[in-house]
Specification:
349 residues; Dna Ligase, domain 1; D-amino Acid Aminotransferase, Chain A, domain 1; 3 domains; binds adenosine-5'-diphosphate; binds magnesium ion
């Protein structure tokens, strides 16, 4: 059998790193993205620009590929469903539908008896004002949020009087957790009970954007085990194929909560490119293409720093040590807080 051609929806850094990993194992990629300047066109074999609801452009894309995956979860469900009728979309769009919406995502987790923060569905001002027991809290749009976008922190009940969220959107109000730390677990599921799972990664956010990640995470054995066990249960329950990330909160009393699930490769897993024999990106491509599952092995401990906005400038043209790996996403414009690149530093383990 010849290797399949993989279509990737979304052309940011995750799409780029997927394309790069695919190339390494002789898999061709075609990126579909609504941004003509998308950085992934520098890394994929082919690039098609079109809106996510442009049927003729989508047809052109679908006709050229053997299967389709995506780098972000906010693609319209109808688009993924339509594509899935012609070429297999992995992970399955049904999974995306659950996870795209913070409310159905949290309901799904609670049904599995997996802890989340306390939350409530907020559709209007009345709902909001009747839930003061969840304050201090964060009001989050049910859909389309990322990197803290669409979120309002509410410290005191008084603040509710000045808050004017756009109720054309639905929201959830979530209680704020007294955070000790944040971790994430990345798992690639190939088939029933067949998966490769990376050890938990410790993450530090600044202004709700990931800034640093490292392995090993500084956590106790119980949290390590539970976080990995939950990630396995979630991926099995979803009948997931490909790489998935579970983001967790650990509170000051060492309680573990799922913050959110990303049905895709994840920023916190960038360090797996340099720490492991097989990265989260290569594993995603392997799983969706039905290629051989290779046991993962950690070669190094690692730290990753996200380079945001003009932080990137100092790194371009810089000389690096043998254990430092600089990634430039080659984005056309530098914007404040935009993820422009990252640096991974490995250490003996
Ligand atoms: P996004 O989808 O934008 O990544 P998240 O829900 O993951 O949104 O929130 C981004 C970050 O904001 C989290 O990683 C965490 O640092 C902080 N945060 C979000 N919700 C809470 C909460 N309920 N309690 C404490 N911190 C939170
Ligand atoms: Mg998040």
């Amino acid at each position: 059998m010849t290797n399949p051609t993989v279509g990737i929806i979304g052309g940011g850094q995750l799409g780029s790193l997927l394309a790069e990993a695919a190339k390494k194992i002789n898999i061709k990629t075609i990126i579909f993205c609504d941004d003509a300047n998308s950085p992934a066109k520098n890394f994929s074999d082919e690039f098609i620009c079109g809106n996510y609801n442009n049927d003729s452009k989508i047809d052109e894309f679908v006709n050229k590929v053997d299967l389709v995956t995506f780098e972000f979860e906010n693609i319209p469900f109808v688009t993924l469903e339509k594509i899935n009728k012609h070429k297999k979309v992995l992970p399955n769009p049904k999974i995306n539908k659950i996870i795209q919406n913070r409310l159905s995502e949290k309901d799904f987790l609670n049904k599995l008896n997996i802890s989340t923060t306390q939350y409530v569905h907020v559709k209007n001002d009345k709902d909001l004002k009747s839930k003061i027991d969840l304050i201090p809290g964060i009001l989050k749009t049910c859909t389309m949020g990322y990197d803290g976008k669409g979120q309002y922190k509410i410290e005191t009940a008084d603040e509710l009087n000045n808050l004017k969220p756009d109720f054309n959107n639905e929201f959830i109000l979530e209680k704020i957790i007294n955070l000790k730390k944040e971790i994430s677990v990345i798992i690639t599921r190939f088939d029933k009970s067949k998966y490769e799972i990376y050890e938990p990664i410790e993450n530090v956010h600044e202004d709700q954007i990931l800034k640093y990640s490292k392995i090993p995470a500084d956590i106790n054995g119980k949290i390590l085990e539970k976080s990995m066990d939950w990630a396995v249960r979630i991926s099995e329950e979803l009948n997931y194929i490909g790489t998935l990330c579970v983001e967790y909160f650990v509170d000051k009393n060492n309680n573990l909560y799922v913050n959110e699930i990303a049905p895709r490769v994840h920023n916190s897993g960038h360090l797996t490119i340099n720490s492991h024999n097989i990265s989260q990106f290569e594993n995603h491509i392997r799983a969706i293409c039905g290629l051989e599952q290779i046991k993962i092995k950690k070669n190094f401990n690692a730290k990753m720093i996200n380079l945001l906005g003009d932080n990137i400038t100092a790194y371009r043209g810089k000389k690096f040590k043998d254990n430092e790996f600089f990634f430039d996403y080659l984005k056309k414009d530098i914007k404040k807080k935009r993820k422009m690149g990252h640096l991974t530093i490995t250490e003996k383990c």
